[in-house]
Amino acid sequence: MQNTKELSQSTCPKCQGTYWTINGNGDAVRCNCWKREKQKRILKFANIPDKYKDATFDNYKTNIYSDPGKMEQIKKLCGTYAAEYKEKAKGLFLHSDTKGSGKTRMAATIGNVLMANGVTVKFATSSSILEEIKKTWSKTSEYTESRLVDDLILAEVLVIDDFGAEKPKDWINDKFYYIINERYINERTTIYTSNFALKDLDYDERICNRIKETCYQIHFPEESMRDKQAAYNMHQLRGMIEGR
Prior knowledge:
Structural class: alpha/beta
Helix content: 40-55%
Strand order of the largest sheet: 4-5-6-3-7
Mean pLDDT: 85
């Protein structure tokens, strides 16, 4: 149990944790601490993977690609998209056949910029969405399926990572169609990353058509940054061995 000293350190002394204060005119106004609290809630809701929580456009390296100029153009395009984002903007479909080409990091970077500007973002892999839905079918589940799906539908910006990785069974098609269609009719922005071009996705045509209409498609370089990092790690290891 928290003692009085701990409470006084964690609770705003101005509003006593209510996030409201009274101004000179006697009106209730948001306390200055509300902005910090709101940002904390946005970050928690977003669920950006720890690996990418500090991802920015400044630390997104393009010189490790075989064609840095092309990747610099993609980075600039995505940076402009994030900086100039407006509610109900078109989404993005970031794709390449090669795993590890930087798509997820780019999507997370965009999400970080949007959250810093107060936009509500939700990040989830397509497989985790399906796993969480299946968990709600258990009688002991803490959440209902409708509550989970509502989080995905209502987020101003939804990032679906690794879209198309799962085998499209009928129930999977139905769940994704419902989520994507609800976001479609309510004009909410969705960002996808995928190891498939849109035309190669093995999904219901209704899903693909809605993505095609509502997203800008950006083809990432067909090369793996993970392979390059692995090669660099080996180079470092050899240097350490030879240096002994």
